[in-house]
Fold:
Amino acid sequence: MAFHSVLSMIISRSLYTAILYLLSPIIVLRLLYRAIKAPAYASRWSERFGFTSVRGGEDTIWLHAVSVGETVAAIPLVRLLQRDYPNQRLIVTCMTPTGSERIIAAFGNTVDHSYAPYDMPGAVARFLNRVKPSVMIIMETELWPNTIAACARRNIPVILANARLSEKSAKGYGKVPSLVGPMLRSISAVVAQHSDDGTRFTNLGLPSEALTISGNIKFDLDIDLSVQALAEQLAQDWQGADRRPILLAASTHRGEDELVLQAFAKIKAVLPQAPLLVLVPRHPERFAQVAQLCQKRGYALARRSAAESTTNADILLGDTMGELMTLFGACDIAFVGGSLVPSGGHNMIEPAAWGVPVLTGPHLFNFTEASQLLLDGGAMQICNDADELAQCCLVLLQDPHRREQMGGAARLVAEANRGALGRLSSLLDRFI
Structure:
């Protein structure tokens, strides 16, 4: 590497690090602010600064999944690692309390768990000194310059698994090429979901020989028999004797719940037998707020956390953690949120795997390839607003054949796109 490139990299990362340290009081204040709405943010601060209680060694695999979505994507990978490398310790890190809860719910004590350190040299060094990983696997796109540089100095391979990079994110990274380029050249391998993602990585400086295109490992999920049985039981309980259909609105965001409720009001105005709306906000700190919103609109509300009866309820609030996969299996139609507002969408592969018709909003930049596959396969419809969401639901609710046809198409797309996990596994053999 040319001297001026090295100097540019040092200056860029040094400036980045200085800014990060200057912002550290704001980071702490932000934690305090978030703790007001979500008390879990008030605990385990030491882990965020590298003081983890986990002690590892050279046989340790470090897998980082920033939050809930990445943790769900990591579940089949963790199962594969536990099966293929039984003598390796596995530590799974995240950055959010909801991600932490999902890790604990999914893996229990079969893995070690900690928050990942902030991307400050001191915090990262403390974490690496304690954990001593032989390899780091990052799920999707969580690029931290100091963490990747510290791993490179210690000859710890860094693998970006199930990687995705939206056009918007690529433009953002492209504004700091002297920081991003050297960081990408320090990554051992990027296993990207789609060729478009791969092209964006190489355009930013990733060596082409470090790139593999695998597909999306979220298609490789397996639904446990126990989950299938629970979903079937929930469907029977919620449908009741009159076989009331179930409409699930999953992972909704602020500003999106109102649109879902507007659509639900239009559905109720048309159908003599309105569906049960199962409404699941994305973030647990919003459970109480969404409950109040439903009640202010005059709806009879039941809460999943209290196991309340849905017999006389209009809406069931999904205010529990770790159950969304089961809820997808219990519904007749699934709207996947984060898509009527510009959050980029959430995992529509899970309802597809159950054979459930999928509805979303237009904002799908986090799932560009998966959404296109489902659209092309006739398994998903995009609804641009509350009116279109209501209309799509009404068509499916009034036409069971259409609903069954669309659900079958969803299952076919999900099955046809399996295999990414096997391709990722072959690559990991080179590093573990």
